[in-house]
Amino acid sequence: xxxxxxxxxxxxxxxxxxxxxxxxxxxxxxxxxxxxxxxxxxxxxxxxxxxxxxxxxxxxxxxxxxxxxxxxxxxxxxxxxxxxxxxxxxxxxxxxxxxxxxxxxxxxxxxxxxxxxxxxxxxxxxxxxxxxxxxxxxxxxxxxxxxxxxxxxxxxxxxxxxxxxxxxxxxxxxxxxxxxxxxxxxxxxxxxxxxxxxxxxxxxxxxxxxxxxxxxxxxxxxxxxxxxxxxxxxxxxxxxxxxxxxxxxxxxxxxxxxxxxxxxxxxxxxxxxxxxxxxxxxxxxxxxxxxxxxxxxxxxxxxxxxxxxxxxxxxxxxxxxxxxxxxxxxxxxxxxxx
Length: 338
Ligand code: SF4
What we know:
By secondary structure, the protein is of the alpha/beta class. The protein contains twelve helices and ten strands. It has helices at 11-16, 22-28, 33-46, 53-56, 67-72, 141-150, 169-180, 194-197, 204-211, 231-242, 261-273, 297-310, and strands at 96-98, 101-105, 108-111, 156-159, 187-192, 216-222, 246-252, 277-282, 318-321, 330-331. A ten-stranded mixed β-sheet has the order 1-2-3-4-5-6-7-8-9-10. Residues 117, 119-121, 124, 126, 161, 163, 193, 222 line the site of iron/sulfur cluster.
C-alpha cells in the first residue's frame, strides 16, 4: 500500500510540506478531534504546530498518548500560567552580545543563523525567543569576527537553534568557511533535531562539507525516545560517523514522553546501535507553556538512579540543568534541589 503520509523525498521538499494544521495531524493519526482539536488550535496560535511528515510516520495511529505526538501536538495546558515558568528561563537575552550571538560559556560561542526549526517541540526553552531581531546578516560577519578575535579563549563555535540544518548547504558552507578562516577556532559543533525528524537532511553534500572541514565537527542531535530512531535515521547518522563526525545525542526528560528508566535505557541502547553516544539528559527548562511536562525532583532522581543501575556508564547521559548566568551546565544527580 502506498504510504500517502510520507514517501522518501529530498529534504527541501519535506521542509516545504510540514504539517501545520492540527486538524490534518489528528486526521492522519486517526484520532477523534473532539477532545484534542480545540486546545490544539488555541495553543497553536501562540506557538505554531510544525512537524515533518517523516516524523509523523513514526507515530502510532490511534494513540493520543504516543510519546512522539505528545512532543509536537499543541495542548490547552500550554495556555496555563504557572509560577516560575517564564518566557526566557535561561536569561539568554542578557547573553545576546551581537545579532545571532550568545556567549555564555568561556571557550564556546553560540551562533544562531536561523530562527526556523523543522519541528516545533512544545517544551522548547526558546519558544519565545525573539529570533527575528537576532539573525546575523552577511554584513554582521565582521563584528562577529572582531568579537572572536577579542576573545582568543573561544575555540569552539556552536551552531544552534533555530535549527542550523534547516539552512541550505550553500549557506552553511559560507559560514563554516568564515569560521575556518580564524586560526583560534578548532571545533565546530552543530545542534540539530533535523536529522531525527527529516533524516534525508544528511545528504551527500552535507556529508562532504563536514568531512572536509578543517574543524573537528561534532553533531549533537536531539532524540527523546527510541521510537524516533528508525532504520533510515540510524543509517543516515552512521553515514556521518563514517565521515569522522562525532555524533552525540541530547534529550529532555519529559513527563508522559520518556519519564521511566525503561524508556531511557531503550533510547541509549538504540543510539549505541547507531554509533551515537548519549550526552545530556536535561531536566525541563521552566519555560512558559511547558509546565505539563515537568517532573518533581524525587521522580527525576528515582528515574536516574534506575538508569545508572541498568546501563554501563558510557551509555548514561549526564543529568543536567542549565541555570541562567552559570559558567557551565549544572550536574544534578545526587544534589537535586530544583
Ligand atoms: S528543534 Fe530545538 S530549537 Fe527547534 S523547537 Fe525543537 S527544541 Fe526548540
